[in-house]
What does this fold into?
Amino acid sequence: MSSTSLKLQKANNLIIKAEEEVKKKNYQEALNMYKQGIDYYLHLTKYDYKEGKAKEVLQVKCAEYLEKAERIKMYLKKHKNGAEKEPVQPSEKDNEDSDNESEDPETKKLVNQLEGAIIMEKPNVKWSDVAGLDGAKEALKEAVILPIKFPHLFTGKRKPWKGILLYGPPGTGKSYLAKAVATEANNSTFFSISSSDLVSKWLGESEKLVKNLFEMGRQHKPSIIFIDEIDSLCSSRSDTESESARRIKTEFLIQMQGVGNDNDGVLVVGATNIPWVLDSAIRRRFEKRIYIPLPEVNARLDMFKLNVRDTPHTLTESDFKALAIGTEGFSGADIAVLVQDALMQPVRKVQTATHFKKVSGKCPLDATLMSDDLLTPCSPGDPGAMEMSWNEVPGDKLLEPVFTMADMLLSMKKAKPTRGKRRPCSAQFSYYIVHEGLLS
It folds into this structure.
């Protein structure tokens, strides 16, 4: 049995013992057992189940057992010698801060499910890390950053956008822009939502999750709700779709712009590659629509520089320009994959090398030190070449070959854009842009 399974079994056993002690009215012992069990659950969510359904289940369990432990704690505080009665729900006098105790358990469960969508740690993607897309960045600053920093600018009839739709071909940086927004929007709560967070197999629970999501956004405002691939949740309504899917869309419509819903301080950002499949009513809720195109030549040049960054290389400015010109039709994601493959070329040289020679250079383990006995791949005819494989090279003696333009060109021969040889915009996409008037 794995260590994770053992910890989970230990936690479950402690909780079972705690509940047995409650039945025996040994409340102090039960409280200690609950505390130990909860500690195991928290350790599991932090180190073993960092994401996924298992983490959500453990979070729900933690909330449930914390509530029980709190009841016992308050009871023991009130009745120091009391073992005659079972713990009761603490009143407002017992604990003035326990407002959530009276909350509907079902609502509490849904809120716990959604808490995993809150981005606690900022992604650390700055505006400068996003190459090109100047128009999109300015529009997002106008909608997100300025209202938070200068709220007095948005008074009277001047109001910030409440819905922004990012659309464009795959791999152009829509989700990456959202990460930059999460980093740059200080003092705001960022919710990153996917269809799995909102779709449930239980009847009626999906629309409740949507409602609770927006209620949490209002409670934590200023807040940003980012819904990636929103077309999977809000496609056009039809007679053939399920009743559950229709109810989710209806709840979205009500929450985004329904009567009685105050969404001041709540911004909804959606991203999609296929905006024409969105329901027209949903699309109308996104007042600001920003087209994220395939990168132009200058943006591609910046992308190559950003992806190579501080890797030791011999590429010149003219090399970067040539790469940018030679990758027309490539998206940002395509360029990232191309550079990643090219960066592996020096590693492949090490792998396939049959000869190595001694050279001087910076110590691989400490760049501040110089070493005269480093080994680097070479041709069999090079002076000082020694026949050996990479397995025979000590780990602290390998000097990697410098990354060159030849490595880039080698990877470019095999690289193809995601969209193949087609025009940057398909006929359907061009029709949509023109007839929906979505160019911004």
Observations:
- The radius of gyration is 29 Å.
- Residues 5 and 196 are 25 Å apart (CA to CA).
- Residues 53-78 form the longest helix (26 residues).
- Confidence is low (pLDDT under 50) at residues 82-102, 422-426.
